[in-house]
Design brief:
The mean pLDDT is 92. The protein has 2 domains: 190 residues, Rossmann fold; 182 residues, 3-Layer(aba) Sandwich (Rossmann fold), CATH 3.40.50.460. It is elongated. The chain has a 7-stranded mixed sheet, sandwiched between helices. By secondary structure, it is of the alpha/beta class. Strand 4, helix 5 and strand 5 form a beta-alpha-beta unit.
Length: 407
Amino acid sequence: MSVAILCGGGPAPGMNTVVGSIAKSFLKNGIKVIGLHHGFTGLFRENANTEELDFLKADAIFNRGGSYLKMSRFKPKAEDFEKNFNLKLFKDNNIKLLVTVGGDDTASTANRVAKYLADKGYSISNIHVPKTIDNDLPLPNHAPTFGYTTAEDSGAKIAATIYEDARTSENWFVIAAMGRSAGHLAFGIGSACHLPMIVIPEMFNKVEITVERIVNLVISAMIKRKIMGLNYGVVIISEGVFHELSEEEIKKSGINFTYDDHGHPELGKISKAQMFNELVSKKYDEIGLSIKSRPIELGYEVRCVNPVGFDLVYCTLLGNGVYKLFKEGATGCMVYVDNAGDVSPLFLKDLENADGKIPPRLVNIEDQKSQSIINNVLHYITESDYKAAKAYVSDPAVYDFKKILGW
């Protein structure tokens, strides 16, 4: 009997810890472990790129960043199952469990594979380990997705260095952080570094996200810092606000995009930091603020770093948990480890909404944690600053933080 492991999507710190821990747990109990390179691609080709994982290999990789098993975002279509599925791989290796490491798309595809195999008379178990540095999977009891804690820690180290550069050179930096649907990473990094402005999609809970509002929030911090006698600072913006802009807003921005065959702007091909910085620069030049700013893109730098202690332990428990659930007969589920270290199965249907989709876990912008940062760490214009702000702008109310957000 053997277990097969594959990794889908993009990397997150702790992937090798999960894979290494799974391998060690199964090997200890006499079960062969096969690593599948290139995600689901290997299940839909005649010659899959596989590798048997022994203890020495598992021990060599478990605390490393990146992913030893090469990853892929390949998502099979119905015709791939009918024409290209490698059933021989499962039969020849007596594979009884498919373990997938990835996001909700990877988990859904694993369920499709298991159902297809059952229909062909070859039943397997499938268990998924959820990962993302975005921390946007709605795990119970605020449990983080693995890799997030390390990404936040590494991002905070980078942002702290950038903040020191800003202080030293008396410049501003505009950081764009990964987080397509939720602002956890940007908010966490900004909070850790006491950055004077954080902009995430969840802040726009009362108003539409527009280019003007994003820019005015940044300018609000710049003016407030000038009032304080500070000519430097760092703002961090979640890329999610960019992806939430309407196409009309994107066109109004004046940024040049390439467009796909359907006429939609190809958002992934532009630096969000460069775009935000250009828009902010245009604004402060327009109103006559003496400021210099530079763009910094933050995301790929934190995906493959070595996991910190929290993720090393957490991912070890997740990997060990896969073996526990398998022995208990669980299948079609994700492995969940709570704050006490207890392992239980988590089924996709328990996370899905009425439309059958898993809604992203957002930053709760109204809870005490968020409000503590917003009220005590961020710098921005309020009504009490209007008189002093008139030395820099004619209408300070335009840059009033709470008025911009409709709070």
